[in-house]
Each structure stands twice: as structure tokens, then as C-alpha cells.
Structure to design on (222 residues):
């Protein structure tokens, strides 16, 4: 699948993968800073942002998308076939990055995983999907109405703002989600599980933990 991306700066190539219900724009500020030293690729994963939608939504399929994008980028470089990449993944993107590292370690110089551990994360909020369906965007007339609807069902302001960024006007002048809600909900149970590691990951890796987050616990560090 051909993914949408935004390229910034110049230098060694560095890819950034966003988290669940996110998109490449979430990393624009960080990307601009890193672009002072790297050629940064801010990527929309399949079913998010401006990338195509698909009913298939698994870690291997998303990792294969990244492989295709890296192959395309390599083809545009003078010595592309020997080029290695730095891959940063946050949350869901962190699992995709680890899946990629297990499948294509020879293509990575470094792996950076942000606020995600090597473990399963059971879905504790199945009701969340019911809440999103209840918004019924296509029936709303303004973005302000959407804001009000989300404010009534989402307590966390940061989560609400993340969702608001995912609302757009389609060609029929109706509000829609940028993400593929049906595919995400349908595959959510399989995404709870961790990615598949057959022989471990030997790529040099850095894990970054959010101090106010409970995604990476002390017990996960060993």
C-alpha cells in the first residue's frame, strides 16, 4: 500500500510512525526539530490520516507498508540500496516499528520506541468505539457541534483534541472521520496482542517512557 507522508529536512533518513487515532501531523513539531539533522518522513499508517483505508489491519501488513515506502525512498537515492533507516514509533506505531525490526532488521540503523512495551495490551474500553459511533458525524452541520458531542462523551481534553483533528469535510460537504473506524474496531482484538518476534530483534534500540503514562511499567523494563 502506498502511504501518505510529509518529508522534511535533509540528511540520513528517519521515519516517524504515529499512535492509535493519530496521524503524521501529530509529530510535525518534533519532525521540524529533527529535520535540522535528518531527512524526516512523517508517515500516516494505513487507515489513518491521508493514507488509504483497508479491511486488513495487522502489524505485519502495516510493517509491509513501511517496507514498501522505504523501498521507494531508497530508489530515489544515489546509493539507495545500501541505505539504512532510523525508525521511530509511538504507541501503536511503536509496535509497528518493532514488527518491522523483526521482519527487516537489515534495513534499520536504529529503532526508537516511544511509550510502548513488548507485551499485550488488553482493550479495556470497548465502549470507546460505541461512543465514537454515537457521534454520527454525517448528521452534524458544524465542527462546533462535533466538538460539543465529543465533549459530552470524552473526558480527557487531549484525547478529544486528537479526535477533532481527525474530522474533515468530504466531497459531499458532510463531516467524516479521517480514520477507518469500522476496520479499527473490527481488528481491535488482534491488535491487543503484541507483534510477532521469531528470532528476537538485534537492531540497536532505544525505549522512551512517558513519566505520566502507565503504558510502560517498571515490571516491563527487564
Amino acid at each position: 500500500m502506498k502511504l501518505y507522508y510529509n518529508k522534511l529536512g535533509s540528511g540520513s533518513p528517519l521515519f516517524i510512525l504515529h499512535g492509535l487515532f493519530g496521524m503524521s501531523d501529530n509529530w510535525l513539531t518534533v519532525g521540524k526539530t529533527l529535520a535540522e539533522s535528518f531527512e524526516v518522513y512523517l508517515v500516516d499508517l494505513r487507515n489513518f490520516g491521508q493514507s488509504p483505508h483497508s479491511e486488513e489491519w495487522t502489524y505485519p501488513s502495516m510493517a509491509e507498508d513501511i517496507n514498501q515506502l522505504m523501498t521507494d525512498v531508497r530508489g530515489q537515492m544515489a546509493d539507495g540500496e545500501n541505505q539504512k533507516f532510523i525508525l521511530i514509533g509511538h504507541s501503536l506505531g511503536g509496535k509497528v516499528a518493532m514488527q518491522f525490526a523483526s521482519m527487516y532488521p537489515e534495513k534499520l540503523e536504529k529503532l526508537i520506541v516511544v511509550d510502548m512495551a513488548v507485551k499485550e495490551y488488553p482493550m479495556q474500553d470497548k465502549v470507546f468505539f460505541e461512543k465514537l459511533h454515537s457521534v454520527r458525524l454525517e448528521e452534524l452541520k458544524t465542527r462546533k457541534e462535533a466538538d460539543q458531542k465529543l465533549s459530552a462523551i470524552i473526558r480527557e481534553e487531549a484525547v478529544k483534541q486528537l479526535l477533532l483533528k481527525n474530522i474533515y469535510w468530504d466531497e459531499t460537504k458532510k463531516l467524516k472521520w479521517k480514520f477507518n473506524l469500522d476496520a479499527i474496531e473490527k481488528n481491535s482484538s488482534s491488535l491487543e496482542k503484541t507483534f510477532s518476534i521469531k528470532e528476537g530483534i538485534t537492531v540497536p534500540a532505544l525505549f522512551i517512557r512517558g513519566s505520566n503514562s502507565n503504558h510502560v511499567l517498571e515490571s516491563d523494563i527487564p
Q: What stands out?
A: Strands lie at 5-8, 12-17, 38-43, 85-90, 108-114, 167-169, 175-177, 205-208. The CA atoms of residues 134 and 149 lie 9 Å apart.
